[in-house]
Amino acid sequence: MKRLILRHCHSPPQINSIQSPLRSKFLSLCDSGDLLTAILLLNSADRCFLPSEPIIFASLLQASTRSFSFPFGLQIHSHILKAGLDADRFIGNSLLSFYFKLCPDISVTRKVFDVLPVKDIISWTSMVSGYVRAGLPVESIKVFISMSDFGVEPNAFTLSSAVKACSEMENLGLGQCFHGKVMVRGFSSNRVISSALVDMYGRNSRIEDARKLFVRMPEPDAICWTSVISAFTQNDRFEEALGFFSSMLQRISGLVPDEFLLGTVLSALGNLARSRQGKEVHAKVITSGLSGRVVVESSIIDMYAKCGIVDDSRQVFDRMENKNAVSWCALLGGYCQNGNFNAVLDLFQEMDADDNQYSFSTVLRACAGLSAVMQGKELHCHFLRIKGGRNVVIESALVDLYAKCGLVSYAHRVFLNAATKNLITWNAMICGFAQNGQAGQAIEMFNDMIKGGTRPDYVTFVAVLFACSHTGMVEEGKKHFRSMNEEYDISAGIEHYNCMVDLLSRAGMLEEAETLVLDSAYRDDSSLWAALLGACATHRCPALAERVAKKMIELEPGYHLSYVLLANVYKTIGRWNDALEIRMLMRKRKVRKEAGRSWIGAQNSSLDSQRYVNSFHSASVEFKELAAGMEAVPYSAAQLELKSATAPVKEVTYLLKAQQRNLQKEVFATFAVKLI
Hints:
Among the domains are: about 425-490; about 515-590, Serine Threonine Protein Phosphatase 5, Tetratricopeptide repeat (Alpha Horseshoe); about 620-675, no CATH class. It contains 36 helices and 5 strands. The strands form 2 sheets. Strands 3-4-5 form a 3-stranded antiparallel β-sheet. A two-stranded antiparallel ribbon has the order 1-2. Strand 3 and strand 4 form a beta hairpin. Belongs to the PPR family. PCMP-E subfamily.
């Protein structure tokens, strides 16, 4: 009983005289950051003479939070319990703030919250926002519902945190419910909530709703501008994102963009391949004193890589004093985007990537680009060994790797065993089926994704239209092409038009394909006309072929494919003289056909070797030797070993099997290349 009385005796009369000096002493120590002295003073004080004013312990907790002193904060928490001040709301909220910011285990923070005798709106808001910051949006919404059950009314900060949770969950329906709650409670003009709503609509691809909400804001601040610019960038509306950025600079005089806004702008510029403007923003970063920030410098690396200037990316990376996982992954991704897959594998050897999922996924993409399934399997095993669990980013990359290497059954197995399937996982599997000739399964997978509530994006429709074109599903393809804009507000890009031209051309609907190209925003893109010209050769339509080829040559006089495809059309219908004239025209204009290139894995091409593939060029000496060797082989099984004058440099062994049928030969060759 005595202990209980002492616990709830906040202001014992016998120590009133010392409270004021103690308070001044502790507050002075908190201001100076001398936590060690404060803790020693608390530990040395007699229990009856402990300070009993909540502001003292709240100040000590805040000082511990500022100095990232988790052990000191735990000791202060124990003294709070001894002093019987744990029921004070001010101290309770300070404890929540301390644990949220310093404790890595959010379940411990939840226990602190659960034992608070009194929970006010600040306590509930701390839990709602804390779960969002911890990446647990579902738990955040559960806390919000519990708060409503207890009759606590949300304030603007609570609602903004709940909207952010909906953004993380990409739950449009729930986000719209909170939008309605915001309007009912009269918070529509609140900038924090408005910026959160813009972000929520942007993440759910409702970009026009985000625009309307932003336009209604009377005086948007920098946070609101950043939200709308990020929303348009995330939805690949880069031109409009840069337009908003320009408007922001005009409307807010003297604004110095922060690192997050500059990172978003650099991302938009990179995706538009605007290196000149990107360099201007880079200069702005330097003059603004932000060049040492990892976030913005990683964005600069990514921007230069997307503009195809990987050497500049490497220079920025090498000059960085502090490199984290983001900067390493930015350079890895840059090499991967530019097809320099060997550099990705080399760079991966230099970094400590055991704890970074994105570096693993980037290297797996490089393996997919090289069709290096052996190295991909090594990485798969390595990840399982160090992590021993599942990860949606890695599993999506594995699905993509195995599908691109032709191992669709492996890819499907990884997909089925994935604990979580996001849009990237679905896209990888749909693309895998489509690219490996299993179009029916790709369409079925797309329908399953829609039924499961996952919203398709730009890439999804590229895969679906590709699948339709390779199975002759003309009406199905037209339906999906229309639904992109009508149902999902996705503007058709060059890839979608290429698939549609291929779909219509395969079905012999060449005139309709030509009309589609002429009516599109990409009528001046030579790749569309090239696809149509190739179909003219298949269906023997010289009149259309000449018209299309003329258009292609107007657009790109130096593009060799225009001449080659037209010559092939003439050959198919027996107009050999016309085909010869096209070839002569190529010589006259000095247009050269690009030589083909292929590669095979070199001996010992594992992750530990420095050379991963051996490249063969159709104009190279090795290729000519290979062709000569194949001609020398009789039509029965044989082995041939060729050695050039520089025999130590290379040894090529060919194992050939051939059959003769009329005047045609079918040669199956298996060869190994040893580089010394």
